[in-house]
Write a structure and sequence with these properties.
Helices cover about 20% and strands about 30% of the residues. By secondary structure, the chain is α+β, with helices and mostly antiparallel strands. It catalyses: Hydrolysis of terminal, non-reducing alpha-D-galactose residues in alpha-D-galactosides, including galactose oligosaccharides, galactomannans and galactolipids.
Length: about 700
């Protein structure tokens, strides 16, 4: 049983490799209840788990209550001075005093069990439910919080949960930072004493940070050592607050929202948070990543078993100047090199001749496509490819028929400017009429054009995010807009089970485990420079699987960085995820097209292994040193090897693989030679791309088959 009652007020929640022990501590003087974590680490049996419930609590002084960081949801109230996970005001009183009401254990089927701890305020009719779900097939633990009120209440902070990381001599954090065109930059460093906050206040996940963090004791490596990881499954504004107590101990509280918003609840209303997910492993950062990847495939992604097709996107070839003849010419070339899905990007709708107009007018451009788009997409299908289209449903141009008809549909505040960003505003998806409008035209578009794929973009962070008609409750827009996007995607997929959706937000501005529940892949960055992409893909892979990562081969010099790089290197970097082509094929030489066809065929040979296999990050820093990424799936082992440096004589010279069966033999496909798994892992191979002298940007694909 995943949930094991240890006594009336303690429970051990077990996963295949870990145990999470929680209990409700009741103050004997005040009766106040404080659910807290007593253990999270390697798996324990029931009797051992029972013993950790009696471990001594932290020393409490007149000036601090350090044990509050062990609480599952420290509230604003009582003898607490730390950052609260829950902050509620009843009129002029901003404080909670909770009493324990009951616990409930539910069997949810498929090896999943859920524990609910129900608490209530001592005076006001306000209920808090802490939920924990564990599954038999993953070490990821899911937590969320529900609040219900029988009176007027104003919530200023409602996190999904607070997690305690056990005592250690030192703490190190891992996370990613970035900006547009340089998302997912991995950073690791000592966790300072005090509070460290990672956040987005933009209404989207953001390019600046991503809602996850990993904590270790400073000695963990890629394949060895303990890691505690937290991730928030949410696509709007978010916040992770890490507290490192002066006397030791670390907690991480994660949830939606940001400082300054207030969510008013009327009697009878409830508010449910998105899940915050926790994972413990003793197998290093690599094992942590593989566990997150497998969790995403089993419990998040809607179509994880499918192989994502090789796509072509026409944006860089045409920008806004799309025509049927040009698109069909590109499609013919794309089909000839093995592309399976053709996606037409921006410029096809309204009067969209540039980015100043027409967002919201989702009908074919009357001058460019006077007869509509059907004949063009039929022509693409005749070439043997599936069809896709770029849309930006949340975007709104002031210069549009929609804005003239419904200016109130834009996010805006009363008596305040409507500032444009990228010469556009944001539609309010918290509104039911906006959601119905969006479902209507999206459903019509997919039906009329028989589309297989949508690239859903969102290029505009929130500003002046208001809904004047809702008055005091308009801050709920920060939550309900994101949930409205989820709803529209879910309804669209329900009507079109074969439709696949890619999440894009000016590149990697909406990459998270929330949006991946409704989309099949994400676009990690607008920067397609292969060297920069290695850094981006390295950070992406810490949490998200390769089968959800869209990666393109584009032209050289690169449109963003102007860096020149060989076609082969560009392909090998893009082959580490879901391969796509984004260059102007009309200008590729016959030799480049021939090489592209061969590389696409090689990718299809290892596609299932890359997209569904166990991923291992090998050797040095990607994009800066010799590096490699390895995938293992069934009997196939695929290794993508990179060397950006021409004159690199220093080690490593041999590439040691990992994750193999040491007693088994593996056939190297290119020459038929046989190698023991033990040899490949202990000694390694010498890739041609790692020869000490040669041109910059050498790469290769090495494939083994277990025999």
């Amino acid at each position: 049983m995943p949930v094991i009652p240890l006594d009336d007020q303690h429970w051990a929640l077990t996963t295949p490799g870990s145990t999470y022990v929680i209990g409700v501590v009741i103050d004997p003087e005040t009766g106040e209840a404080a659910p807290r974590q007593t253990y999270w680490g390697p798996r324990l049996g029931p009797e051992a788990a029972r013993q950790v419930t009696d471990l001594p609590r932290r020393h409490v002084s007149s000036f601090s209550t350090p044990s509050e960081i062990e609480e599952l949801l420290p509230v604003d109230g009582g003898k607490r001075w730390g950052a609260p996970s829950l902050q509620v005001a009843f009129g002029h009183v901003r404080s909670l005093e909770l009493r324990f009401v009951r616990s409930e254990v539910r069997d949810e089927g498929d090896g999943a069990e859920r524990l609910d701890l129900v608490l209530a305020d001592a005076h006001h009719p306000f209920e808090v439910v802490l939920s924990v779900r564990v599954r038999a097939d993953t070490d990821v633990i899911e937590r969320w919080t529900t609040v219900r009120t029988g009176t007027d209440a104003a919530v200023t902070r409602l996190d999904s949960g607070n997690w305690f990381v056990p005592d250690a001599d030192a703490y190190r954090y891992s996370g990613v930072f970035g900006a547009w065109a340089e998302e997912s930059q991995l950073q690791r460093g000592p966790l300072p004493v005090g509070e460290l906050v990672f956040t987005s206040r933009q209404g989207i996940t953001s390019h600046i940070a991503n809602p996850w963090i990993m904590i270790d004791a400073g000695e963990t490596t890629e394949e060895h050592g303990e890691v505690w990881g937290l991730a928030l499954a949410w696509s709007g504004s978010w916040r992770l607050t890490t507290t490192h107590r002066p006397e030791g101990g670390v907690s991480v509280s994660g949830g939606f929202g940001h400082d300054g918003v207030r969510w008013t609840l009327a009697p009878g209303e409830e508010l449910v948070t998105p899940p915050v997910l926790g994972l413990y492993t003793d197998g290093g950062f690599g094992a942590a990543s593989r566990a997150w990847h497998e969790y995403a495939r089993r419990h998040v992604l809607p179509t994880p078993a499918e192989e994502r097709p090789v796509l072509y996107n026409s944006w860089e070839a045409t920008t806004f100047a799309v025509t049927e003849a040009h698109q069909l010419a590109l499609a013919k070339t794309a089909a000839s090199i093995g592309v399976e899905l053709f996606v037409m990007d921006d410029g096809w709708f309204g009067r969209r001749d540039d980015d100043t107009t027409s967002l919201g007018d989702w009908f074919p451009h009357r001058e460019r496509f006077p007869e509509g788009l059907r004949s063009m997409f039929d022509g693409i299908r005749d070439l043997g490819m599936s069809t896709g289209l770029w849309v930006e449903p949340e975007g709104l141009s002031k210069e549009s028929e929609l804005y003239r008809a419904h200016p109130d549909w834009a996010l805006h505040l009363e008596h305040r400017r409507r500032d444009e960003k990228r010469q556009q505003l944001v539609l309010n998806f918290a509104r039911e009429d906006v959601r119905e409008w969006a479902v209507g035209w999206l459903d019509g578009l997919v039906t009329e054009l028989d589309l297989d794929y949508l690239k859903w973009d969102m290029n505009r962070p929130f500003t002046q995010a208001g809904w004047p008609e809702k008055e005091q409750s308009q801050d709920r827009i920060w939550i309900e807009h994101t949930r409205g996007v989820y709803e529209v995607m879910a309804r669209l997929r329900e009507r079109h089970p074969g439709l696949r959706i890619e999440s894009c937000s000016g590149g990697g501005g909406r990459v998270d485990l929330g949006i991946l529940r409704y989309t099949d892949e994400v676009w990690p960055s607008d920067n397609t420079d292969a060297r920069d992409r290695q850094h981006i893909q390295h950070g992406f892979s810490q949490l998200y699987p390769a089968g959800a990562m869209s990666a393109w081969v584009t032209d050289t010099p690169n449109p963003t960085t102007r860096r020149t790089m060989p076609l082969r290197y560009r392909f090998h970097v893009a082959m580490a995820g879901v391969l796509g082509i984004g260059g102007n094929l009309a200008e590729w030489t016959s030799g480049e097209l021939e090489a592209a066809a061969e590389l696409i065929a090689q990718y299809k040979h290892v596609r299932a292994t890359v997209q569904h296999g166990r991923q291992y990050r090998l050797a040095g820093t990607p994009g800066a040193e010799r590096s490699a990424v390895q995938y293992v799936h069934g009997d196939q082992v695929a290794v993508l090897v990179y060397n950006p440096l021409g004159n690199a004589k220093r080690a490593p010279r041999l590439l040691r693989l990992t994750g193999l069966d040491p007693e088994a033999r593996y056939e190297l496909e290119r020459d038929g030679s046989l190698w023991y798994g033990a040899t490949l892992m202990a000694a390694g191979i010498r890739p041609a791309a790692w020869e000490p002298i040669g041109p910059d940007y050498r790469s290769e694909l090495v494939v083994f088959r277990k025999v």
